[in-house]
What does this fold into?
Amino acid sequence: MRSHSLLSLLTLPVLTAAAWAQTQEPALEAMRNAWQAFESDQGSGWQVEWNKATGSPKAIFGPGLRLQAGPVRDLESARSLAQRTLEEQAVLLGRGESEFVELIGSRAAGVWVFVYEQRYRGMPVIGGRADIRIHENGVLGMFGATAAQIPADLAMNPRINAELAEFYCYRDLGVTPSEPGPLQEKRPAGELVLWMDPNAAVASRPQLAWRFRVDERDAQVTVGSSFVDAQSGAILEYKNEVYQCYEHGEAHAHESVNDEARAEEEPRISLSTRPTPDRMGISGTITAWANTGLRPTDPLVNVPLARLRVVSGSTTVFTDEFGVFTIPDVDAAFLQIFITGEHVRQVSTAQGQRIFVAQLVDSTAPANVQVLSAGAAEFQWTQTTVYWATDDVNVWTRALMQPNPPQLDVISRVSARVNIDDSCNAFYSANSINFYPTQGNCNTTAYSTVIYHEWGHGIDDAFGGISQVDGLSEAWGDIIAMYRTGQPYVGEQFRISGAPFLRSGLNTRTYPAGGGVHTQGQTFMGFAWDLRENLILSLGQAAGQAHAEKIVINSIIGNASNQADAVREVFLMDDDDGNLNNGTPNYQAIKAAADNRNLPSPEILKVELFHGSLAATSEQLSPRLVSATLNPLEGSVGLAELVYDQGSGEQRRGMVLGAGVNEYLAILPPVASPATVSYFFEVLHSSGDVLRFPSQGAFQYGVGSEDEIYSTNFESGPDGWMTGLLQGADDWEQATPLAKAGTSNGIAWKDPGVATSGSTIFGNNLSFSGAYPSSSNNFLLSPIFDMSGRSGVTLEFKRWLTVEEGIFDQASIKLNNNTIWSNPLSGHLVDTKWVDVELALPAADNNPVVQISWALETDAGLELGGWNIDDVRLSSFVASPLPDLELSMTPAQIDIGSSTAVEVKGSPGMPIAIALSNSPGPTVIPGLISLDLGAITFLRSYVLDGAGDFALNWNVPTDPSLVGKVTYAQAVELTDLSTLTPSNPVVLLFSQ
It folds into this structure.
């Protein structure tokens, strides 16, 4: 065993949450900027929920985003749209250098549901995920990610080896690792992962960790996942994966049994035999006495054992839903029957005889195989009862989840064990459900609602794993039990005396409930029952029950990690257009159920805002008119305010109704360049709510001019550019493109035939076959640029790229070795012409060392043409030059009955004219001047004084008809007899 000094472990760097968040500021800023760009592109009305641990937007939803014109009819089409969304929104989702790997992809209640696991360098990121929900009509209804931001300095080589980490793991648990069983070669090995706490209320730094899956059942059941810091050996977390039915019970040990290996060793219940007939083909019915009631004391009933496995020699068949089996082409058979089937891997018992039937049957008449009798003992009938209930709930769930997702095949391999020597509990662990016999003050727990509850943990586990945040998985177990039995009680007569049941959907708990996980889960359990009752009231008994089952049970597929997310999934299942802002068909019923439990839920958008974000401008002395249309979807708009920041803190300005329908106007004051102006809107609704647009962040634009830093068209030699490789061959060339073309595995590609300017470009393999090499990792590297004092740095270039989809070959652009663009993971990128590319480089702002690379990493097959680039240009934002003639009117948003100060600065003693218009123009006087005005409605002439100044106060009449009117102003100087010099334009708005 490798030794580690205590000093070496204690000197590892430790970051506080605040310090960690500060180190991640560039990634967080990139996500914030991407969110602002998203709202600018897609409009307001989007709601976003940010994950505090990662800083990423875990859920973005609202008006919906149309991904394709028509409906999405199949899984592969939906998957392609989902992958495209992940690529297009990679920066917003905080993916960074990680990848999102699909865990769940299924259609559920009219919605395509995709859940992805975050991985970094192939390692799972614990709690890292991405979500896509696409309505079948082709609208993106929700997307988001809880994506860990992986630090560049994260140590990826463990100081603690797996052996030592395993020692720390078991020491912390206080158990001794058992020797591998007869069916195991060794205990599961430790696995390196990146651990974080996705539910932390502050930034959570990812850490390299060893994950051990612990399964010890010698004395006390200890099943779970332990995470050991791979650098220090500290225990980061232990996730208990024993999920009990009752909070105060204890789950005791039970041995692992492999039925197929031990079948011949089991005690047998042999039934009567018949003589061999002279006919071919055997059929029969298998029935068993079981408890199908709601209470453990209900009388047994004789029920068909559906989907039961029947073995005869080398032939295996299964009974149908009525317990009927058929063995063709034989005249007699010796049947061997364990209580195992299509949806139950095995049922075993810790006490008493395990049921096994051996019976000789023939084709003279249908065989009736009877398992047990009406007077069967508890140790016997609990086996048939667990089988019947487990098969029943599986079939019921499959009928609701159409088409059946593959995760249902996982829960169909569930095993069951009954009559464990303890009392007053049941538990789920590792795809097994476990039950106790009548003992002490408790009845047997192997009956309907308790079985359904434990199986509910299993279906939750199958869809991405169990979350006990807010006791969510306990709620799922209770909901499965209530919905399947159609009544609100779980665990009736669980105790022989005392409380009549364990839990009820009629509870009055509200979120967050506090207490243990079983208590916490009762809020979501109650929500689900309230919803069912509300839908029955609004839709009728049959339709209401059916729709509740459809939208609630299908929402499990979304693998929510807490109750609030689980409620949103239910709304998504009920939605009919991908737009949560306008509610859902049964919004009021679902909303009332959520409100009754104080559970957060999506709100119907009360006001819809339409606004074209203001573009960057070089006019640094001109006020800017802001126009927004505020359409009330319910109620009315009271007041609207423009909240803006020009670099000195937030300012507020009331908005004025304009001439358009529901049009609101305000003026942003002029600002000196270079500057960045941000703004948002606040609206007082008639409900009393203050609505913010956008809900997070702000609209933003720059004031200043573009300054070119660097440009090249690769005509003058390398000029500081270099190529290099990390693996394989370096095939970058600076040469004339020759239109090389080819086909690889059916994919046709072609290189350009000419440069975009000049004659040479940089590209992969320009002069030979044109195809890039396999199994290579090479790059083109720019010179180093000093961007000190620069802001708004932008990269522009021409691209002609053909590359296999990103899961195999990666074409990327990097800034200081950090990826800023890469080709989509799904779908080949095959340019057929030169493409203009423009990328903002916020990481380059005020950075003294900036270097850009174009990289290509390829696998062993499918080689296309690769990179071709030309006309590379870098620019930044700088101050604009002042105009020769300056006009200002302060304030530019003027109350009627008040005045504005008019000032003009120009050449001393020169005559000027000030013109006003009701429209922005332009007006062109050929050979003389172009004005940013329409038809002139007012014109006055003045003369600048000896200092080149002119000033006056302009009084605005008290005329209510002026309110909301916009006026455009500009001054003109007669610089000489043949030259007219225009001033900067000014826009005025009249308010009250």
Q: What stands out?
A: Confidence is low (pLDDT under 50) at residues 1-15, 181-185, 248-279. DSSP finds 16 helices and 61 strands in the chain. The first helix runs from residue 6 to 10. The radius of gyration is 36 Å.
